[in-house]
Write a structure and sequence with these properties.
Structural class: alpha/beta
Strand order of the largest sheet: 12-13-11-10-14-17-18
Largest sheet: 7 strands, mixed
Shape: elongated
Number of strands: 18
Strand content: 5-15%
Number of helices: 24
Distance between the termini: 142 Å
Low-confidence stretches: none
Radius of gyration: 42 Å
C-alpha cells in the first residue's frame, strides 16, 4: 500500500499521524516543493521518535521505583472498590471518618492558643497521609493525647473549711501542723481563686502516715488523688516524657497523671522523692526542678507534647524519709513539714479507730467478734513495737486477728459458736505474739557506772535512744572509740576527755598513779568508750554532754540516775550548746520509758511542738554548762 501511494500523499499521511502543533501542520501544507515537504516531515518524525523513547525510559524508571507502600496503596484502593461492589464497605468507621472525628473534637476542645495551633498543623499533615504509613499512627496518637488532657477542666475545691477540718481529724490523729497548713491553703484559696498550689514535702520516718495523709488531703479538698512512686526512677524521660522521634514514645509521669485524673487541679503525691536515682540517662531530680517551682511550672513542657501545660493549679505533695539525699536546689523549692512520729496515746487512738477495724475486716471477721480493750492495745504498742510510726503495730494486730480467725472458724465448723471467746486479753496476746520483745532496757543499762543514756536523731527523721558505755583498763593513756562513729562524734569524745582531765581537781578525782586529788586520771590507763548497735553509723555533736557524764561516772564509780537521758553539744570551756531534733528525741525518750530528760537551756523553746501529754509524763531539766548537767545526772 505504501509503495503505490504518491510521495506527496505519503508525507501528508505521516504528518497527520504524529503530534504536531497547528503552526507546524500549516507549515507542512504550505510547503509546495515535494522534496522540501518530505524533508520537513522526516525531521518531525525523528523528533517524535526521540520524544517517545525518552517517555518510555522515564516510565520504566518510575515503575522500577514504585515501592511497597505505593503498591499497597493501589491494592487497597482496588480492595475498597471491590468491597463497595460487594456491599461490604465499612461506612462510618473508615480512616477518613476517624480523621474527620478528630477534626471535630479538636474544634470542640478548649485548647489554649499554642496547643491548638500545633494540633491544627498536625491534623493537616494527617489528612495528607495514607493510613498505612508509619507516621500516621504516631500523629494520630499524639492528637488523641492532646484531646485527652484536661486543659481547662477543673474540680471545685471544698469551700467549707469546717467540713475539711472534720475530714482531716477523722482520717488522722495528731499532725496538727499539717492540718493547719492545709486549712490555711483552703482559706486563702477561698479568698483568692487564682492562688498557686503549694509544694509540700512530708519528711519523717517510715510508717507515720505520709502517703495516707496525702490521700486524706485530696478527700478534704474534694479533689482527685494520684500517687507517683519515684523510688528507683533513674531516667529523666520518666518525668519529662520521650520525644516523638523515638519508637514507643509516651508522655512523662506528670502528664500521665493529669491524663488519668481528667482535671488540671488534682493532688499528686510524689512518693519517696529522696530515693531518686541518677545515671547516664539523666538526672530526674533536675527535671523535677521545673515541676516543683511555682514560678516556672505554669509553662511546663513535656518532651512528648512539646507544648506548655499549666501545672500551677496542681497541689504537689512529696514524701521523704531522709533530707540528706535530696539535692539542695530541689529541697529548697519545697515547703518541708516534719512528721516526727506518734506518742503512745496517739498510737492507741490510731489502732482503735483505724488499724483494728481494718484488720478485722481484712481477715473476714465480724466487727463484734474481736474485742480488745485499750490496756491490751497499749501493751501491744509498748511491749512488741518500738518505732516512730504504726506499721509494725498494724502487723502485730494482724497477727492477733489471724489467731482469733482460726478460733472463730474452728468454732463454726464444730458448731460451738457459744464457746467462742471474742475477748482478747493481755495473757492471750502473750500466747499469740510470744514473750515481750521490748522491756525496760534503760534500767538495766544505767545501773552500772560509766553507762549513760543519750538521745539521738536518726537519718530517717526518727528519734532514738543512744547508750554510751565507758570502761577503764591498764594502758598508756590511749582513748579507744568503737561503734561505727563519724569524725564529729569522735571529736566530741576527745573534747569530753580533755575537759574531764582539765577539771579533775574540781571533780575531786584522784590520779590513777599518784592517787593525789587533781592528778592525771589518764596516766597509766586506757579509756574505751563504746556506742552499742555497732552496725548503725553514728555522728553529730549532740552526744558531747553524754560522753562527759559517762567519763565522770566511770572515774567516780557513781551510776547515773535511773530513767535519765540527755543531749547537748559540749565546748572545751564546758558550755552546753543547743542541738536539733528536740521533738523527735523527746518522743523517743517517752517511747523508751525515760522519765527525766536533760536539755540545753536554749532548746527550751523547742518543747512547744511536743504534745502536752508527753511533757506531763517527763521531767525536763535545762542546763547551761557541764556542771549543771552533772548536778542533774547524779
Amino acid at each position: 500500500m505504501l509503495d503505490s501511494t504518491p510521495p506527496s500523499q505519503l508525507a501528508d499521511l505521516f504528518a497527520s499521524m504524529i503530534d504536531l502543533s497547528l503552526e507546524e501542520k500549516l507549515n507542512v501544507l504550505s510547503t509546495p516543493q515535494l522534496s522540501h515537504r518530505i524533508t520537513r516531515v522526516l525531521e518531525l518524525l525523528v523528533r517524535q521518535i526521540q520524544v517517545l523513547k525518552i517517555s518510555q525510559k522515564l516510565q520504566s524508571t518510575v515503575e522500577s521505583k514504585l515501592g511497597k507502600k505505593q503498591r499497597e496503596f493501589f491494592l487497597r484502593q482496588q480492595l475498597d472498590a471491590i468491597k463497595k461492589e460487594l456491599g461490604e464497605s465499612d461506612e462510618g468507621t473508615g480512616e477518613e471518618d476517624e480523621v474527620a472525628d478528630l477534626g471535630r473534637r479538636l474544634g470542640e476542645a478548649k485548647l489554649p492558643d499554642e496547643p491548638a495551633k500545633v494540633a491544627g498543623r498536625e491534623l493537616r499533615r494527617l489528612k495528607r497521609m495514607h493510613p498505612s504509613m508509619a507516621e500516621y499512627q504516631v500523629i494520630r496518637t499524639y492528637l488523641e493525647t492532646l484531646l485527652e488532657l484536661p486543659w481547662a477542666t477543673s474540680t471545685p475545691d471544698m469551700s467549707d473549711i469546717g467540713a475539711a477540718r472534720k475530714q482531716l481529724d477523722a482520717d488522722h490523729c495528731g499532725l496538727e501542723k499539717v492540718k493547719t497548713r492545709i486549712l490555711e491553703y483552703l482559706a486563702v484559696r477561698k479568698l483568692k481563686n487564682d492562688m498557686k498550689g503549694p509544694i509540700l514535702c512530708f519528711l519523717g520516718p517510715p510508717g507515720v502516715g505520709k502517703t495516707s495523709l496525702g490521700r486524706s488531703i485530696a478527700s478534704a479538698l474534694g479533689r482527685k488523688f494520684h500517687r507517683i512512686s519515684l523510688g528507683g526512677v533513674r531516667d529523666e524521660a520518666e518525668i519529662r516524657g520521650h520525644r516523638r522521634t523515638y519508637i514507643g514514645a509516651m508522655p512523662g509521669l506528670i502528664v500521665g497523671a493529669l491524663r488519668k485524673c481528667g482535671n488540671n487541679n488534682p493532688v499528686i503525691l510524689l512518693d519517696e522523692i529522696d530515693k531518686l536515682g541518677r545515671d547516664f540517662r539523666g538526672d530526674p531530680a533536675s527535671a523535677l526542678l521545673e515541676v516543683l517551682d511555682p514560678e516556672q511550672n505554669s509553662t511546663f513542657t513535656d518532651h512528648y507534647l512539646n507544648v506548655p501545660f499549666d501545672l500551677s493549679k496542681v497541689l504537689f505533695i512529696a514524701t521523704a524519709n531522709e533530707a540528706d539525699t535530696i539535692p539542695g536546689p530541689l529541697f529548697d523549692r519545697m515547703e518541708v513539714i516534719r512528721i516526727p512520729g506518734y506518742t503512745f496515746d496517739e498510737k492507741l487512738s490510731i489502732a482503735r479507730r483505724h488499724l483494728l477495724p481494718k484488720q478485722i475486716t481484712m481477715h473476714g471477721l465480724p466487727l463484734d467478734q474481736v474485742r480488745i480493750d485499750d490496756a491490751t492495745l497499749l501493751r501491744i504498742a509498748t511491749a512488741y513495737t518500738r518505732e516512730a510510726g504504726v506499721r509494725n503495730l498494724e502487723r502485730e494486730i494482724a497477727s492477733v486477728c489471724r489467731a482469733v480467725a482460726v478460733d472463730y472458724a474452728d468454732s463454726k465448723e464444730n458448731n460451738k459458736s457459744q464457746s467462742f471467746d471474742s475477748l482478747v486479753t493481755i495473757q492471750r496476746v502473750e500466747s499469740i505474739l510470744g514473750p515481750e520483745r521490748f522491756d525496760d532496757e534503760v534500767s538495766e543499762r544505767t545501773a552500772s557506772p560509766g553507762v549513760v543514756t543519750g538521745l539521738a536523731w536518726t537519718a530517717s527523721g526518727a528519734g532514738g535512744l543512744l547508750f554510751i558505755e565507758a570502761s577503764l583498763m591498764p594502758g598508756r593513756g590511749v582513748l579507744h572509740l568503737t561503734g561505727s562513729l563519724g569524725e564529729v562524734i569522735k571529736e566530741s569524745a576527745q573534747i569530753g576527755l580533755t575537759w574531764v582531765r582539765a577539771n579533775s581537781a574540781r571533780l575531786n578525782l584522784k590520779g590513777s598513779k599518784s592517787g593525789a586529788v587533781g592528778g592525771d586520771v589518764f596516766e597509766g590507763v586506757d579509756v574505751h568508750i563504746h556506742f552499742p548497735a555497732g552496725s548503725i553509723p553514728k555522728d553529730g555533736p549532740s552526744a558531747g554532754v553524754t560522753i562527759v557524764t559517762s567519763l565522770v561516772s566511770l572515774f567516780t564509780s557513781t551510776p547515773v540516775r535511773d530513767h535519765t537521758a540527755m543531749t547537748g553539744e559540749l565546748t572545751l570551756r564546758g558550755q552546753v550548746l543547743p542541738v536539733g531534733g528536740i521533738k523527735e528525741k523527746v518522743l523517743a525518750a517517752h517511747r523508751g520509758g525515760i522519765t527525766r530528760v536533760i536539755l540545753p537551756q536554749r532548746n527550751q523553746k523547742d518543747l512547744a511542738e511536743v504534745p502536752k501529754r508527753v511533757i506531763d509524763d517527763i521531767e525536763f531539766v535545762f542546763v547551761r554548762n557541764v556542771w549543771d548537767v552533772l548536778d542533774a545526772a547524779f
